[in-house]
Amino acid sequence: MTSQHGNAKYLKDYQPPHFFIDTLTLDVDLQPTQTTVYARSEVRSNGANPANDLVLDGIDLTLKEVKVDGHTFTNYDINDEQLLLRDVPQHFVLEITTACSPQTNSSLEGLYLSDGAYCTQCEAEGFRKITYFLDRPDVMAEYEVTIKADKAQFPYLLSNGNKIASGDLADGRHFATWHDPFKKPSYLFALVAGDFDVLRDSYTTVSGREVALELYVDKGNLSKAPHAMASLKRAMQWDEQRFNLEYDLDVYMIVAVDFFNMGAMENKGLNVFNSKCVLANEETSTDRDFHLIESIVGHEYFHNWTGNRVTCRDWFQLSLKEGLTVFRDQEFSSDLGSRALNRIDAVKVMRTHQFAEDAGPMAHPIRPEKVLEMNNFYTVTVYDKGAEVIRMLHTLLGEQGFQKGMQCYIERHDGQAVTCDDFISAMSDANGFDASQFKRWYSQSGTPQVHVQEQFDAQQQQYVLTLSQHHSPTADQPSKDNLLIPVAIELLDSQGKALSLNAHGVADNVLQLHQSEQQFVFDNITERPVAVLFEDFSAPVKVQFEQSLNDQLHIVRHASSDFSRWDAQQSALSGCILDELGRGEKAQLDEAVLATLSDLLNAALAGQEHDLALVAELLQLPSFDTLSAHFEQVPVDAITAVTEAFAQQIAEHLQVLLSEVVTQLSDDKQQSQQSVAKRALLATCMGYLARVDTQLEFIETQAHQGSMTLSLAAIKALILAQHPRSSAMLDEFAARWQHDTLVMDKWFNLQALRKGSDSFANLTRLYQHPHFSWRNPNRVRALIGAFAMSNPTQFHAKDGQGYALLGDALVKLNDINPQNASRLITPLLAWRRFDSTRQQLMKEQLERLKVLPKLSKDLFEKVDKALSE
Ligand code: B3K
Ligand code: ZN
Description:
Blueprint: E1 9-10, E2 19-29, E3 35-45, E4 54-57, E5 62-68, E6 71-72, E7 76-78, E8 82-85, E9 91-100, E10 110-114, E11 117-121, E12 140-150, E13 156-159, E14 162-168, E15 173-185, E16 191-194, E17 197-204, E18 210-217, H1 226-243, E19 251-257, E20 264-265, E21 270-274, H2 287-302, E22 311-312, H3 318-336, H4 339-358, E23 370-371, H5 380-413, E24 417-418, H6 420-431, H7 440-443, E25 449-457, E26 462-470, E27 485-492, E28 510-513, E29 517-522, E30 530-533, E31 542-545, H8 549-558, H9 562-579, H10 591-605, H11 612-618, H12 624-628, H13 636-664, H14 673-689, H15 696-705, H16 708-720, H17 726-737, H18 741-752, H19 759-766, H20 777-790, H21 792-795, H22 801-816, H23 818-824, H24 826-829, H25 836-850, H26 857-867
Helix pairs in contact: 1-2, 2-3, 3-4, 3-5, 4-5, 4-9, 5-6, 8-9, 10-13, 11-14, 13-14, 14-16, 15-16, 16-17, 17-18, 18-20, 22-23, 22-25, 23-26, 25-26
Bound molecules: (3S)-3,7-diaminoheptanoic acid (B3K) and zinc ion.
């Protein structure tokens, strides 16, 4: 590792801090380019691990003064990242005054200005951009924070905890002082100053305490706040009911800001949210937006216990809070809405993004072992695979056992900074569960493969499943061990009825695969059953099972798990696509599949399918990324040719039925689960109908006057079908919504999906659009992110224009916002998985970045890994 980019940190090198800081008093005098921060802390040596020098983290700060026990202190060394105080006492009061410049801070980390409001983002290591500190999560302090700012411009001054004082100052300024009674790590600190509209409400907790709820939004956005507020109240209640966890402060605040690097941040008592993840109303938001907001509001709220009250010892333990909290938010959404649909969503993320991460240069276990830039490890592996690991534990222990484990975990560790091992110990101690093998899921990276063979002996009336596990090396780990893999199963008879498995010694329908190969024998089976394996995606693995198309379609029709019906449908469709790959545009979709799809639509029309959203999912072909996961070298052109051909055949074959659906189902524009499901089906139908130029009037009407969900779906359908009307529809949409930034992001999104040779020029032209801004991550992701991640045909254009477009953007973003750049680079990292021409073109872009004079740590870590052998 070159010194320009600092040194990587290793989990194995963890050392407890030499000093603790028990209290921190901050006085922040806000000015755009000269904010003064006075920090007073009580520092105490860690007797078990003492030292003479105190090394504090600090970046982009101007040091004004240091005092130790009231006296000016000059015995220090300072560099770009640290302040080293020599020979300090073992217990003392430290006072440090620094200055920083929020206005020029475009990294959106530390203290910055978002559209005129001051706000902070400290996770993972942003607090060091505010003051010199022991910026690590195992140093927990009680905070008292005073904020000073111009009163007219910044009437609201907010920080964590409870407001204990406020008043006027000279020169039209004012102040507010906040006290947070709970000790917390610096990454949970937050400060906001601005002028907002406020939606106020309250929640009475299960023990009868009244909590004030406050949602701060930009002026004029109040009509978009109620959904997030309602979501928050549902989350508070759900956590009491399902996890027996109650909120602890007297106030819970959420602030929506426009400039934000991710979705939201769980700062104690003062969440900061990307406005996109809070603001919604019926006119401007899609059903997905409503759903996403509810789940993110829930996620940040659930962190109050899993993350804040019990926090991480070090950043390698990130999944301790993120995997667990994602699991909790998934359960929240599933308890409140459709469990199957939520499961499908989660599994799509795993199969498209997480499996790809495992297959690329950034492969890492859910508890990484080596990190250069921590922000690079807020990944689908840590979050989503982390949640899958928690889910497996839930599957193995059952809900009751899992809750017993949770209770033990919280009782043992409330107020502490702990490790994933501590979590597992609590779970295993509470249940008498031997977790020694299961724990490997935390240290082993990669997507396991499970091979399945079945045998049926009619004479013996015996059905035998032979399962074996296989682990290929990943970029970070050459050798692997066997894991404990829970395999939830169902056996269907020829009528589609589930056989009772309890009689066959299988508790709760879950087989435990822990050796490299195991046989599971089922007796008294009178006919060859059809096996539904990994029901509900009971483990994050790839399954190799030569199941016949007939068996797969039998599952689609009869499995008791709706998720497994979808899963079998995806396997069937993927199988057909892979079989026909060599035939390109001439590929033919199997008649039996087309017949199943017709039956499905007929059943939906006859009211025999209970969930139309599921029908919508069952009608869709697997995505490009899902299909790519089947290959070491992705055959881009073959995949797109065959999927295009199949989509066209489905459209032609089902034209009449699809058309009937759109005439029968009308959208009442309500938010009920049923209306949402109806719209999901209508959207899918339009996708096919646009390809055969059918129901164009319906599609155009939806584009003009439909709900936001259907309006976007209609235009997207036209774009993907490369329909001549798509341009006009896009223009009309922009004219109608140009006053609304968040809606314009959806328009950028659609623009990014355009195909054809002028699509590149179109994109670069949009950089000049009055709504576009390189400094705003939402805009950049809506246009460039969507292009690189969701438009494979153009991104992978053979002449390399797509790669160059992303490369140009990354060069620019490297200076403005390294975190944002580092998220966007993902598709280029997979360069080795493409044909040699594409490899060369992608590699050129990576090499170009590698030699940038001021390459950020964030990009360096990824580019370096991607290019090294
Ligand atoms: N904990 C934050 C993510 C912080 C990302 C820092 N780069 C949001 C969340 O997962 O809830
Ligand atoms: Zn989180």
